[in-house]
What does this fold into?
Amino acid sequence: GDGASCGNAGAIAATEIVPFALPGLWKDVPRWLLDPLGPLSLRLSYLPQFLPWLYLFLKSSNQQKVEETTKVMAAFVQNAFEDYKPLLGNAGIQNLLKKEGSLVVYKSERGRAKDSYFWDLSKRNGVEFNLLNREEILDREPALGKQAHCGIYQPNWGHFANPAELVKGLAKEFKNRGGTHLTDEVEALEYKDNKPRIARTKEGQTLEFDHLVIAAGAWSARLAKKLGDTFILDTERGYNTTLPTPGVELNNMVMFAEDKFVATPMN
It folds into this structure.
């Protein structure tokens, strides 16, 4: 339950089907990089390593590719809540799941209009949402300030009240079913009978398996490469702050559209 398991927004983003690489996104990048409070930063020393990924990212931002990706993502996440139910039920942690929807707030009508392609594409691929004016926003979230001018409410969205407890609960259920948790570093993956079958670790362990799932986040590409599967993968670093006594109450997960950050009510 440490690291990324507790330092995240805890969302089941069942409506997040539109890729980040939208047509015209590149126009916002210089402004974001120059703004010390902007949502994007990049170390110049990292740029040479980053360029291959950036090239493919920008290449995929054409409208045809974006529409194809959105269609695939819609099919991929459509059963997100149903898929979680048996896992949470078997682990006895179903109370952690809150399906209250999410609220996206904008500082102006102009800001919301700028995202019109995003919302139109979402709607065409089955995402339900309602347009809200300021009064309707305050009906849902009285604690929001004057900058919440207009917004969009998405009912098919959920979050976990405690992401760390979620991971601990699932890990406990995994062990109860006979699973073993090892802390080690995989240094080599080997084939046997033309299939991936063996992992060798830094501590000298040799582990044989029938099936392998690589779920190492930004490091997944390194392991996949050992099996001959090469692809461009880079990190997306986010920053998390937990406020034990925030002084405000939220009913929904709230996303601040122009500033690109999220506030989640947790226990």
About this structure: The CA atoms of residues 25 and 61 lie 8 Å apart.
